[in-house]
Amino acid sequence: MPLLNEEEHLAAAVDAVTSQGYPGELQLVLAIGRGHDDTLGVARRLADSDPRITVVENPSGRTPDALNLAVAAAAHDIIVRVDGHGYLSPGYIEHAVTVLEETGAANVGGVMYAEGVTDFEKAVAVAMRSPLGVGGARFHTGGEAGPADTVYLGVFRRDWLEKVGGYDPRFTRAQDWELNYRIRQAGGTVWFDPGLRVRYRPRPTLGRLARQYRDYGRWRRVVARHHEGTINARYLAPPTMVVVTTAATIAGFFWAPAWTVPAAYVAGITAGGLAISRGEPRRSRAFTPLVLATMHWSWGVGFLTSRRSGDFDVCAGPAEPDA
C-alpha cells in the first residue's frame, strides 16, 4: 500500500485488508512517503498492534518508488496492490488468488467502485462509474470477465513483476497501465473479474479533482509517446472536445452560429449529469454536470499541455497514490 498524506483514511484502509479472513499467510506492507500529516505515526502504531504489518519509508514520496519498495519488502509469491483511498470488499484476496490460479494470468483485478460520503463526493462517484465521465473501461463501469488492457490495482504473480522489472519509477502517474502494458507485451495475461470490487473514495474538492484528472491526461500522453500504438479514440475524446469547443467559442464572436457547439456541450453534460445521478441527493445532482465538465476539461487540457521534451518531469512533485 503506497501512502502519502493518508492519516485520515489509513486505519480504515488497513482494516479492509487485515479483516479479509484470507486462509493463507498475509503480510501488509505500508510504504510511507514524507508528507505533511502523521501518516507514518499512524502506520507505526498499527504495525505495533499487528505483526502482519510492515512499514517501509519512501523518501521520494512517489507512487512507483513506494510500490517497488513494498514489493521488495514483501515475503510472498503473490502481490496484492492496494491503496489508501481504496477499501477491499470482503473476500477480495481469496477470490483474487483463486482467479489467478484458475486463469494462469500474470495479474488479475476488478472494479474501482467509486463511493462518496459528502454530496460533492457522491457526484464525483456517479461520474466515475459512468461511461459519460470516464469512457467504457471495464474497471470503471463493470462488464464480463476476461482479458483486459488494464485493471484497477491488481493481484500479481511475483515472478511476473520481476520478469518485467517492476513498476517504472519514471511514471508518477499511469504506472499501473504502463506496467500492465509491459506484462502483455511480454506474453502475460491481464485478467478482469467483475467479482473483485474495491470501494474508492473520490477527491473531496473541485480543485483536487481537477489536479487529479489534469495529471491523468498529462501522463497518459507520456505513456502514448513511449509506447507507440497505445492511444485510442477514448483517450483522444477529451483533448478533441477541448480544442473544438474552444475554437468554436472564439469563432462565435465573429460568427454567432459557432456558439451552438459549446452550447451543445453544456446541454449534453447537464442532461447527461442529471440522468446518471438519478436517485442521488439534490445537491449531488446539481454538482454532477460541473464534475463531468471538470473531469473532461482537466484531462483534455492535461493531455494537450503535456510537454514533448522532459517527459518524466511532467509533474515534478509526488502525486497522491491511486488509480
Characterise this structure.
Helix 5 crosses helix 13 (282-305). This protein has 2 domains: 2-120 and 135-202, Spore Coat Polysaccharide Biosynthesis Protein SpsA, Chain A (Alpha-Beta Complex); 210-313, no CATH class. The model has no long low-confidence stretch (mean pLDDT 91). Strand 1, helix 1 (10-18) and strand 2 form a beta-alpha-beta unit. It has helices at residues 10-18, 39-49, 63-73, 92-103, 119-128, 131-134, 138-141, 158-164, 175-185, 206-226, 233-251, 260-276, 282-305, and strands spanning 2-3, 28-33, 53-58, 78-80, 86-88, 107-114, 146-147, 152-157, 190-200. It has 323 residues and is an alpha/beta fold.
Helix content: 40-55%
Mean pLDDT: 91
Give the beta-strand count. Answer: 9
Shape: globular
| Uncertain stretches of 5 or more adjacent residues | none
Give the tally of structural domains: 2
Could you give the distance between the termini? 12 Å
CATH superfamily of the largest domain: Spore Coat Polysaccharide Biosynthesis Protein SpsA, Chain A
List SSEs in N-to-C order. Answer: EHEHEHEEHEHHHEEHHEHHHH
What structural category do the secondary elements indicate?
Answer: alpha/beta
Number of helices: 13
CATH fold descriptor of the largest domain: Spore Coat Polysaccharide Biosynthesis Protein SpsA, Chain A
Radius of gyration: 20 Å
Name of the CATH architecture of the largest domain? Alpha-Beta Complex
Question: Under the CATH scheme, which class of the largest domain?
Answer: Alpha Beta
**Biggest sheet features:** 6 strands, mixed
Brief descriptors of the model:
single chain; 323 residues; alpha/beta; Spore Coat Polysaccharide Biosynthesis Protein SpsA, Chain A; six-stranded mixed beta sheet; three-stranded parallel beta sheet; 50% helix
